[in-house]
Amino acid sequence: MSGAEKIQVKVTEITPLNDLVTRFRFERVDGGQLPTFSGGAHTVVEMHDGPVTRLNPYSLMSDPFDQSSYTISVRRDDEGRGGSLFMHRQVNLGDEMTISYPVNLFSLDLRARKHLFLAGGIGITPFLAQIKQLDVLHGQWELHYACRNHALASYADDLTGRYPNETRLYYDDQNQAIDLKNLLSGQPLGTHVYVCGPKGMIDWVRNTAATEGWPADCIHYEEFLAPKPGKPFEVRLAQSDKVVHVGENESLLEAIEREGVDAPYLCRGGACGQCETVVLDHAGNFVHRDHWLTDEEKAAGKKIMPCVSRFEGKTLVLDR
Amino acid sequence: MSKFEFPKSIASRPVWGTLEVRPGEHHLIIAEAEGAQAVLDIATPGMMAVTHIIYIPRHTDHSARLRALNPAQFYEGPSYAAALQRIRRVLEDAHMGLQVYLTGTEGMMGQAMNEAMAVGIPHTAIQTEHRGAIGRRMQCVHCKGITEDVEVDPFVCAHCGLNLFVRDHYSRRLAAYQGVRVDAEDHGNVPEPRGIYE
After folding, report:
1. Where does the Dimethylamine monooxygenase subunit DmmA-like C-terminal domain lie (chain B) (predicted)?
2. Residues of A in contact with B125 (CB under 8 A)
């Protein structure tokens, strides 16, 4: 099977935090210990929603050294494809679920002399684990956390209570915004910046840091793309000798898996590069949405990332 | 001779670049000898207004031309060792957004790169351009002594006196190439020294 190794877990705690976010605790079904992980890692949660199987990545937010359980926080997205709604409405205490081993595409660079965390909304979750990791390592860090309002600021009170000197909050409804340019230019040499939040925030931080002369290796970001719905299309899988219909609300990768073809994947969010697939033939246009392929590769039309990208046209043949 | 095309070699050998002005709040230029030419090639008034130049002439005289660029700060030191305290202090006080430019001999660039890396600048973000002398900073693998500005191969270790073969194997940590005894098996059988790139 593709993807990271699987772990059977039981839901042992469901904690609503506010109108949008609920926290889930997982413990191993066999009572054993879970692997340790590094701050910033995610797990892919399998959801069996009737005939549809969803595999959604969620950042692990618990203490990376705590092997008794993992916790994730899920923000309900009423407009999304249904993964978060499934977690909020159909997962009950005591349910058994399958999650993947932790995979980290947003790890701390431990060469940094200081870590500057910028979180937007639910983007706070990977930082919670990273902060716990830095507690043990006695790392230097500060957190700037922007949210819509105080009621939706998950974990804000915990953070300001425990780390009053390191945490700064910004509320949209009070017209507070991160003074990014100033914040960046005041950082000592050797600082690395990490951003997790909405796409607009990630782009803003990456562009501002680059303009301010920050080295690319000191700028880290994580943005999970949920596969977007799109027009249905057909794909021919040359190796498996199958023609697969990709529906409006499923991703190309999900359609391939539905037909029983074992395709590689890890993050399912266009970031890790694991699902890169060779295009043998096509007549039509690609809808590339990943962060993996370069602009030149996207223009060349020889590769596609089936976890988030789609196709519009007559023929698509993949080497799979 | 200001520019020299180093022959292609093993992956361990550093590949030096060509300086270009990058966006940044401040610029630190460390130039040695003919490296001044590389600075003159890229300097703009806008850049110089926020630039600190540390210059080590080593028997050349480009100081007047560099001063004429009107950098925010200019320091001239008689040697790298003499300039080192200042380099460390500047890096210690600097903030993110500092761009570092190194130009001159391989030995100077390698050592200054170590100083910049020690304060947390990724080596990939440090710009370099080789200019001037092609002598190498060599470490003797036997006595660990460093011999500067080695131009011939084999050469005699300035510390232990062994005859050393000049390898392309480079240590970023030491900012030096590796020198290995050339007559280890057959003492005294030392080839005639030739220029490293001849």
Report:
1. 137-180
2. 215-218
Burial classification of residue A45, based on how many CB atoms lie within 10 Å of its CB (0-12 exposed, 13-18 middle, 19 or more buried): buried
Q: Are residues B95 and A112, on separate chains, in Cβ contact within 8 Å? A: no
At A256 the three-state DSSP class reads helix
pLDDT for the residue numbered B128? 98
Closest alpha carbon within chain B to A210: B23
The answer to whether B61 and B139 are in contact (CB under 8 A) is no
Residue type, position B169, single letter: H
Q: What is the pLDDT along chain B (198 residues), one digit of tens a residue?
A: 568 999 999 999 999 999 999 999 999 999 999 999 999 999 999 999 999 999 999 999 999 999 999 999 999 999 999 999 999 999 999 999 999 999 999 999 999 999 999 999 999 999 999 999 999 999 999 999 999 999 999 999 999 999 999 999 999 999 999 999 999 999 999 999 999 998
- ipTM attached to this prediction: 0.87
The yes-or-no verdict on residue A3 having pLDDT over 90 is no
CATH topology for the B26-130 domain: Rossmann fold (3.40.50)
pLDDT at A229: 84
A318: confidence class by pLDDT, cuts 50, 70, 90: very high
**A287 secondary structure, DSSP code:** E
- Would strands A114-120 and A141-147 be described as parallel, antiparallel, or unpaired? parallel
Sequence length of chain A is 320
Phi, psi torsion values for A276, nearest 5 degrees: -45, 125
- Residues 6+ away with beta carbon under 8 Å from A138: none
Contacting residues of B for A115, CB less than 8 Å apart: none
Q: Are A149 and A173 in contact (CB under 8 A)?
A: yes
In this prediction, residue A1 has a pLDDT band, given cuts at 50, 70 and 90, of low
Cα B78 to Cα B85: distance, rounded to the nearest angstrom: 13
Q: Where are the alpha helices (DSSP H) in B29-173?
A: 35-42, 45-48, 63-67, 80-93, 106-118
For residue A64, the SS3 value is coil
Distance from CA of B161 to the nearest CA of A (A): 38
Contact: B120, A215; criterion CB under 8 Å = no
d(CA B32, CA B44): 19
Instruction: Give residue limits of the domains in chain B.
Output: 26-130, 136-195
Domains of chain A and any CATH numbers = 6-104 (2.40.30.10), 114-222 (3.40.50.80), 233-318 (3.10.20.30)
pTM: 0.88
